[in-house]
Amino acid sequence: MKQIYSDVIQFRGTHYEFGYMQGEELKDSLTVKNREDQWKIRQPRFTVEEEEVKRAITQFAPGVWEELLGLQEALKWPIYRVLQEFGGYRLDYVRSGCSIMTGNDYLIRNYDYHPKTYEGRYVLFQPTDQGYSSIGPSQRGTGRMDGMNEKGLVIGYNFMNRKNPGDGFICCMIGRLIVESCADVQEAVAMLKEIPHRHSFTYVVYDKSGSTYIVETSQEI
Questions:
Q1: Which neighbouring-strand residues pair with 177?
Q2: Average pLDDT per block of 10 residues along the chain, 221 residues long
Q3: Theoretical Cys-Cys bridge with 188: which of 37, 52, 182, 197, CB 3.0 to 4.6 Å?
C-alpha cells in the first residue's frame, strides 16, 4: 500500500488573510512544482477571463474571490496564473471512479484518483468576514474534494463524464462553494441547480437532519 500524508491546516481570520497565509506556504512547494511540471507536457484546454471568473465566484461566495487575491499577493503571480491554478474554473479531469455511502450520522467517501494528485492538505477554516466554517481536504488550493461545514452539511462528488465541457466551475470548487454558503441540503440542491458546471458530476449532499440528496449535474449544451 502506498503511503501518503496530509498537513492539517487550521486558520481563523478573513478570506484574504487565509489566502495570503496559504500563498506563503505554497511558495516553492511540491504542489506548485508538480503543477509546473504538468504544464510542461500538457496544454491547457481552457481559457481564463478575470472578470468572468470574478462575477461567477462572487455570485455564490464573495469571500473566495478575496482568498484568491490573498494568494496572488503572497505568491506575486499575475492574476491569470492564480486563476489557472487555484480558481477552480474550466479545468479538465481524467477518468476516475469515486464512490459514496451515507447512513445514520455518516457519509463515507472514496476518492478514486492517483495519489500524485493529492495536495496533502487538510484544511480547517473559520472565516471572520463571511461564510460558514468548514473542514475538508483541499484540491487546487481553494477547492475541496469533499467537506463539512459548521451547520452539519456534508458534500462529496462522483465523476460521470467530461464530454463537451462547458463554461463553469470544476467539481472541487463547487464543493467549496457549497460548504461555504449553504446551511442544509435544500440550499445545496438549489445552488447546484443554479451554479454553472464545467463537467458532468454527481454531487451527494447530506445534513444533520439525516436527509441525503443525489444531484446529477451537467454543463449547458
A1: none
A2: 82 96 87 68 62 86 93 92 77 58 82 67 92 90 88 86 74 90 95 85 89 82 54
A3: 182
81 contacts: CB under 8 Å, gap ≥ 6? none
- 3-state SS assignment for residue 9: strand
C-alpha grid cell, residue 214: 443525489
Q: What DSSP character marks residue 89?
A: B
Burial-class residue 100 by CB neighbours within 10 Å (0-12, 13-18, 19+). buried
Pull the grid cell for residue 189: 440542491
Which helix or strand (DSSP H or E) is residue 122 part of? strand 121-127
Q: What is the largest CA-CA distance in the chain?
A: 47
Beta-carbon contacts of 13 under 8 Å, excluding residues fewer than 6 positions away, are 21, 127, 128
Torsion of CA 186, 188, 189, 193, to 10 degrees: 140
Residues linked to residue 197 through DSSP beta bridges, in sequence order:
169
85-102: per-residue pLDDT in tens? Answer: 888 755 444 455 677 878
Q: What is the pTM of this model?
A: 0.64
**C-alpha pair distances (Å), 35 with each of 28, 42, 84:** 11, 10, 10
- The residues spanned by each domain of the chain are 7-217
Q: What percent of the chain clears pLDDT 90, i.e. is strictly above it?
A: 34
